[in-house]
Specification:
- This protein has helices at about 20-35, 40-50, 60-75, 85-95, 105-120, 135-145, 150-165, 170-195, 200-205, 215-220, 225-240, 240-245, 285-295, 330-340, 370-380; strands spanning about 250-255, 270, 275, 300-305, 320-325, 345-350.
- With about 375 residues, it is α/β, with parallel strands linked by helices.
- The protein has 2 domains: about 20-235, no CATH class; about 240-380, no CATH class.
- A 4-stranded parallel beta sheet has the order 4-1-5-6, sandwiched between helices. Strands 2-3 form a two-stranded antiparallel ribbon.
- It is globular.
- The protein starts with 19 loop residues before the first helix and ends with a helix.
Length: about 375
C-alpha cells in the first residue's frame, strides 16, 4: 500500500477502497495476541485482586490488553519519564480539568499544554535500568502530565496498586514480562498490521516543526506501535462489550465532525447535548448518509466536535444505552474506556483514515467508514 496524501498517518483501505482485508487481518492478529498474553498467570492474579477489593470487574481480555499496554507505553515513553514527572503529572492533569469551564480557559490550558509537551515532557534521558515499580510510577506521572492518556493512566494506576501489594521480585517480574511481550508485539504487529500504518514516521518527520509548541504535539507524534495497540484494543473492546451493546434498549452513533463535507459556516447541523444533529443540508454528505441509515434501525446520530466532549458530564445507568463510536485509530482505547466509565456500552467503527483540521490536515478532508460494517452493528444491536 503506497502513501496517500489524504491519509497522513494510516489508511485501512485497499486498492478497491474497502477495508475488508484490514478487518480480517486485525481479527486474526488479535486472536494471536490474546493467546500470547494469556500465557502470563498474572492476568488471573490481577483479576482476583479486583474481585477481593470489590472493584468493578472487567473481562480478562481487557486485563490482558492492559498488561500489554504497560509494556508498550514503557518502551515508547520511558526515556521521557523524568524524576519529577509524578508531581508534574498531578499538576498538569489538574490544569487539564479546567479546560471545560470556558473557551478562554481551554485556550489558556491548551497553550500551557503545548509548552509543556515541547519542553519539559519532551526531555529524554538514557534509560539503562529494567522497569521497576518506582520507574513505572514515574511513567504513569508522565502519561498524566501529557494530557493524552487520562483513561489509560487511570486504568494502569490500578495495576500499580496491585503490583505494590506483591513481593518486590514478583511485581518486577510481571513488569519485565510485560515489556518483553511488548517487544514481541511491536515486531509482530509490523508484520501483520504495518501495511496500514506505513506513513506514520513520514508524517511525524514532515510535521515536526509545525507541531512545536502545539497542544496536540504529543498526540500527533505518537509511535507506530501505538496505532497497532489501538487497533488490537478496539477489536478486544468490541468483543468484550458486544453482548452489553446488543442488550441495551437505547442506541446512539457518535460521528466525528470530520465526516461532514461542509465547513462549519455552511453546515446546518443543530446542537443537541454534547453534539450536533444533522439537518440533511447536503445529499452527498456522509453524515447525512449515516443518519438516514441509522433511522432505519431507530438509532440516533450525534456529530461530535472533539473526542473529549463526546459523552458530556453526566454518567448514565450502565446498560441503558449502547453507542457506536466512529473514531480515528489513536482515540480507540481511550474512547472505549471513557464510554464505559460514563455508563455506555461501546462498539467501534474505525475511520478509514484521519483527516480532521484540528490534528491531521491543514484544510481538513472529509473522512469515511465501512458502511456495511456500521449497518451490521446497527442490525445486530436491535433487540
Amino acid at each position: 500500500m503506497g502513501e496517500r496524501s489524504d491519509a497522513p498517518t494510516y489508511s485501512l483501505t485497499g486498492e478497491d477502497g474497502g477495508a475488508d482485508q484490514y478487518y480480517t487481518d486485525v481479527a486474526v492478529f488479535t486472536d494471536e495476541v490474546l493467546e500470547k498474553l494469556h500465557e502470563d498467570q498474572s492476568i488471573s492474579k490481577f483479576s482476583q485482586y479486583i474481585a477481593l477489593r470489590k472493584l468493578e470487574v472487567w473481562d480478562h481480555n481487557i486485563y490482558a490488553l492492559e498488561l500489554l499496554m504497560i509494556g508498550v507505553l514503557w518502551n515508547v515513553y520511558s526515556s521521557r519519564a523524568t524524576a519529577g514527572s509524578v508531581y508534574m503529572g498531578k499538576l498538569l492533569s489538574s490544569l487539564y480539568a479546567l479546560r471545560s469551564r470556558s473557551q478562554e480557559a481551554r485556550r489558556v490550558v491548551d497553550r500551557l499544554k503545548g509548552i509543556a509537551g515541547t519542553s519539559v515532557l519532551a526531555r529524554r534521558r538514557h534509560v539503562d535500568e529494567r522497569i521497576q515499580l518506582h520507574s513505572f510510577a514515574k511513567l504513569l506521572g508522565w502519561l498524566r502530565a501529557s494530557g493524552e492518556f487520562e483513561q489509560e493512566s487511570r486504568r494502569l494506576k490500578v495495576w500499580l496498586d496491585f503490583l505494590r501489594g506483591l513481593p518486590e521480585k514478583e511485581s518486577e517480574g510481571i513488569l519485565q514480562r510485560a515489556v518483553r511481550k511488548a517487544v514481541w508485539f511491536e515486531r509482530r504487529s509490523l508484520e501483520c498490521l504495518g501495511r496500514y500504518t506505513s506513513n506514520v514516521d513520514t508524517y511525524i518527520e514532515n510535521n515536526r516543526q509545525r507541531l512545536r509548541w502545539q497542544e496536540n504535539r504529543i498526540f500527533c507524534s505518537r509511535n507506530r506501535v501505538e496505532y497497532h495497540l489501538n487497533m488490537v484494543g478496539a477489536e478486544i473492546m468490541n468483543q468484550v462489550f458486544y453482548d452489553g451493546f446488543h442488550a441495551a434498549p437505547g442506541k446512539i452513533v457518535f460521528l466525528p465532525i470530520c465526516m461532514r463535507n461542509k465547513t462549519a459556516g455552511k453546515c446546518q447541523a443543530v446542537q443537541e447535548g454534547p453534539g450536533y444533529v444533522c439537518r440533511r443540508c447536503s445529499k452527498t454528505c456522509r453524515v447525512q448518509e449515516v443518519t438516514a441509515l441509522a433511522e432505519v434501525y431507530s438509532c440516533k446520530v450525534l456529530m461530535i466536535p472533539h473526542a473529549s466532549t463526546a459523552f458530556g458530564q453526566e454518567r448514565i445507568r450502565v446498560g441503558e444505552v449502547g453507542i457506536i463510536g466512529v473514531a480515528c485509530v489513536l482515540n480507540l482505547i481511550s474512547g472505549g474506556y471513557k464510554a464505559r466509565e460514563m455508563g455506555y456500552l461501546p462498539q467501534c467503527v474505525l475511520l478509514h483514515y484521519s483527516g480532521c483540521v484540528l490534528h491531521w490536515h491543514r484544510e481538513g478532508i472529509e473522512t469515511s467508514i465501512d458502511m456495511e460494517r456500521l449497518e451490521r452493528s446497527l442490525r445486530e444491536g436491535q433487540t
